[in-house]
Amino acid sequence: MPMHHPLPRHLRRLLLIAAIALTAACAPTPEEPERHPAVDTAEEALAEGDYDSAVDAFLEAAEAEEPPLRHEYVLRASSALVDAGDLGRAEQLAGDVPIDEDTPASLVDFRTAVLARIALERGEYERALEQVSDRLPSDTRRAADLIEVRADAEYRLGRLLDSAETRASLEALLPEGPRLDRNRNQLRQSLAEVPMQRLREIMPPAPDIFGGWVELTFLIRNYRLDPAEMEEAVALWRDRYPDHPAVGEIADDIMAQYREEVLRPEKVALLLPLSGSLADSGRAVRDGFLAARLSAADDGTEVTIHDIGEDGDDPWAAYMTAVQAGADLVVGPLTRPAVSVFADTGSLPVPMLALNSASADASLPGNLFRFGLLPEHEARQAARHALASGQRHAVVLVPGNDWGERVATAFQEQYESGGGAVLARERYRDDQSDFSLPIRRMLGLDRSSQREQRLRRTINRSVEFEPRRRQDVDVVFVGAFPRQARLIRPQLRFHHALDLPVMATSHAWGGRDEVAADRDMAGVVFFDMPWMLGEGDRLAPRRSELATIWDGELDRNAPLYALGADAYRLIPYLATMRTNEGERLEGATGLLRIDDTGAVQREVLPARFHRGRVERLEPDEDRQQLPGLDSAADETEANER
User: Fold this and answer.
1) How far from the centroid of its chain's Cα atoms is residue 5's Cα?
2) pTM here?
3) How does pLDDT run across 560-599, given as a tens digit for each residue?
4) How far is CA 341 from CA 354, 356, 358, in A?
5) 90, 192, 207, 479: least buried by Cβ within 10 Å?
6) What is the number of alpha carbons within 13 Å of residue 96 lying toward its C-beta?
7) 361 class by beta-carbon count within 10 Å (0-12 exposed, 13-18 middle, 19+ buried)
8) CA distance 120 to 138
9) What distance, in Å, lies between the first and last C-alpha atoms of the chain?
10) 611 with 519: CB under 8 angstroms?
């Protein structure tokens, strides 16, 4: 991602955007023509969210005027249609505005900004960025529209620092009011999502407006659990940036928000299955939780551990026992059925951080947080990754069970919400080794064979024939565990899908390098937690240190150890992360956020198989077009087998 580029490039980009802002700020303001009365009506309707009336009024004004003012009002109607979600009509209106060498530059910029917004809403983020970039820098009164679209596109592409930097340049172009407030809020959200390690790398930033936002964000996130340290750090920041727009109420509001929302329980109860068939899983979570507790500063929190037995026998009774013993926060239980017991209660006496999800139709208490290593998180990230890489058409292959259905649904919902299309969704039996039938259906090879059979019957003679897979597929998403994944990948290759990128969840990897077993997995991209990929060791003990303790249980239980460690680290931030959409916590299990329902969402890391080993995809590489096989050498090696 661009936020990982070296500082010189970062500075060059900063200078470019600063130049844009300076040029636009210094441009003369054109005289406003006399307004048609319908324009006032349209603007009042916009302020009230009545887009239909606003569109009608703008078009009424357009009919009464001559170009270029007519075209200006048509574009304002188109912009209102974008706000209303009517993208088809918005595009038609904007497309009807003619552009030639005599068209005023401001009108060209306005039309470009509207069309780019349409592309954004359709999930075509790269296209939107290209459209506005072609018109920047601009010295017209529409420069702010172009820059705002640029910031939105960069954010949606995951270029968080670029987006924040662009919004900092937009500050000087916006008057006081809702639009400026939105820009500042979006800037803060972008920076709140930048990993703290990246912010540390650029400290101290350049002492300008953008640098001030970066440094303020870093200081508040760094000292959010120590109000006194935060106050002192922000006071020094104010001395460094006396004229910064956040120096007054904004900084005070941010600090007050963190102080009020930090959760400091005095007694935490941990409900886990420490006996029965799930004992190993429960102990892994417990060990991770306690290791994080020991490595943190002593805040006086008392932790009590309750064994709730096989699959959470009577978890409600265990919860009430802990509450009656004085617990003001409960962590656990671990299994989905046990968590569902609490989801259906309607209310809870004290907050709970459950370590799994609940049934989808449950009526959730307001103080029930859910944090689990859900495969849906990785499937959704695979979909976002494919879309950002330009892959717009996917096929899906998953096992015909509940796990496969959950993974496939999560991928498809995320993919299609971003503008992609799932062309086929096939299921396989996970107790078999031959997946030819679902693969052939998924790739359209059965239809190709049927055409060959019809041709043979028609001409009544044999013909040379090679089945041809469907050509509209960009990427294959596979839900599988190691045994099935190692069989599916070469079978995809055999069925003429050699050139198609293949994506999976972390379940396709056994958790350690097995060169001989995974050589056929060449090029498969998957998503896993930082700790499993060696990126989160500072947040939990290294996996190598645990190998001697857990013997052969390490591979199976390592993710649960990381879950326990992150569960402890989440506790102080539960309230603030739920009420602040942009707040993120770097964890061993991923970059964590909490949605407004109390569910912890994870953003994990991309990796791929290369010559039987797993390698982390580099920050820039993971936004490029997805690879099929890793290299010509891998392809030759695969073909030889």
Assistant:
1) 20
2) 0.68
3) 999 999 999 899 888 888 877 667 788 899 989 898 889 9
4) 11, 12, 8
5) 207
6) 18
7) exposed
8) 20
9) 36
10) yes
